[in-house]
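Morning, I've got a small favour to ask if you have a moment. The fold is given in discrete form, as structure tokens running alongside the sequence. I'd be grateful if you could look everything over and explain what you see. No rush at all, and the record is pasted right below.
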Amino acid sequence: MTGPRLPSAPIVVATLATVLATVLVAAAVTGMAARSDPPPDPLAAAAGSSDLGERAAARDWLLEHEPGLAQAQAEWGHDFYFTRAIYSGSRGRWGGRGGSWATDFPKADRQFLFILHRLLTMLDLHEWENPVSLTDPELRRFPFLYMLEVGYMNLSEAEIEGLRGYLEAGGFLVVDDFWGEEAWYNFEYHMSHILPGRQIEPIPLDHPIFHQFYDIDEVKTVPSVNNAMRGRYEECWGPCPPTVRGIFDDRGELMVVINHNTDLGDAWEWSENPYYPIDRSTYAYELAINYIIYGLSH
């Protein structure tokens, strides 16, 4: 399944490396509750005197009950959409929300966009979360795709073909928040069907993806908020080292970045919590910003 390559979005990188910690500290002090309000847009203007809180609640209901429809409200033409993959598979605890794809959703997405908007002011970003099904033809509009809890995914043939077509057309996938060998084997099995013949390889720390905006010199474990508050970072028994691995295309560019034994999404979601370790939330934002710049510029 092939198609036209996704358009790249070149980004001019400014020197903002010292800003992130300041923003996170401010967020921890003030909180991010305001981010739940809808951003200014033509829909807000058309609403006139309608209550913004009610509109936000209505959107949340839409995302919970019909997440695929929320994507249709996105405004085309922005440089960046934080797009989350909707896929089949469940840990058995998300009910009507749809499955394991919805872990940390939508708070993690909103808080990440809140920070991103303050850091990358040169980037024209869509300010709402953007969940899209792997089978949706509109997926190719979005060069960056986030997918998590893949140890529980159980993809249909249509989803496998949709993700394969997306990646072969130039899409960039970031995988996050799955732990241990069993989850890895399930992910590896699916990827062998999505991209047959392409190997999963370690990404060395001198690779450009670790130095696009911030210099990442160490791969760290990013814990869930509950584990962090108990002083435990790992979610699996025995040796559980964090790794960043990837799948490369024929030109040697990364198509897929795989964060195993770590949870970037929880760091985004709980970065305003004063009990969450700020060194890990800072790291999670830095790494994700590097991923976005690489994904949009390659």
Summary: The longest strand covers residues 254-260. The beta strands are 83-86, 130-133, 144-148, 172-176, 201-202, 243-248, 254-260.
